[in-house]
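Sample pair:
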Amino acid sequence: MPGDRALRVLLLTPEWPSEAHPGAGSFVVHQVDSLRARRVVVDVMQFRGGASPRRYWRAHADFLKKLRVGRYDLVHAHFGQAGFIAVMQNKLPVVVTFHGSDVFGLPPTSVLAIAKGGVLRLASRVAASRAQKVIAVSRRVAGQIARADVDVIPMAVSAHFHPLDRGDCRAELQWPSDEMSVLFVGDCKNEIKRYALAEAAVRLLAEQMPNVRLRVCWNEELAKVPVYMNAADVLLITSRHEGGPLVLSEALACGLPVVSVDVGIVGERLSGVQGCVVLANDRAETIAGALRTGLNKGGRLLPSSLSQDGPDFVAARVEDVYRKALNEREHRR
């Protein structure tokens, strides 16, 4: 048993920045950095499954090789699909963090999407049932996991997110100074994010406010995202479902007003926050009306206190889960 010595963790994740995907998994990187700052030794193994059985088989083989040659106390898997790989061994205890799409599944846009979503949810259920400990990034995600001992720990907000000069940010992005900018953060092709709904709402709004523009931030390096948030007038979230979303907390840290459908932590996080709107429904007309009201009021928010979601606080809670997992494993022997 490690006791109070530094833990050695093998972290398995399908989301990690690369040259082609510089913004992928930045929240996982941030957590790893915070854990390392607490003297937790973290060895990262990242893979991109891409719904390919061959890639997952290769990732599983690479994972087992890592376990043979490395000296680890436990495995921490981010996302259910990584958790599925991690629990296919009994050598080390496993902690799995679920983020949302892994338990909610994929939009039923085609027969193939339905099949992929079913496999993803099944893999997540297996991972949740066999893991020593389970973390969910929100209570709504926890509600989808068939365990009573789920730890709810949100991902932390990076210190990159704070108020910046709006004019400087607009100049850097080459946005007109008189534009009313609605920001959409996410992959426009990801059906979960529902970019088409955001586009339809802004198109309706443009009939009354010709200077409104929908701006997209996607596949950018982490340090660039706060520039978009400080340049924009409002953040719009139209997702079918979310684990967090972390982008909500990041926007609040920048003082950016938010208009959002009621997903993930949105309802509880925006309760009582002046200048933000939790939408009563997801009709384009409703969204356009909320955006119009918010843009007419203008102004910024007072940056929210982030002590609850701060990196040190979150890393301490994750490390505590690690030690609980090790204790439980030891007691069962």
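The longest strand covers residues 8-13.
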